[in-house]
Amino acid sequence: xLIIPIKxxxxxxxxxxxxxxxxxxxxxxxxxQTRKQFIKPSVKRRALIxxxxxxxxxxxxxxx
Length: 64
Fold this sequence. Notes:
Elements: H1 12-25, H2 28-36, H3 41-63
């Protein structure tokens, strides 16, 4: 839960801007998206291995 203290006489637009910035920094939206669907651990691991292979291929192509 995000709490944004509003100072006396502060503009609501400025407080809303601070809320949005804090919301982005805490990655709340990303957590909500990942919790929306269950992903099996084997699928997560496979995606991680595929990403590592892709990055390794880019590094190998750069060195050649």
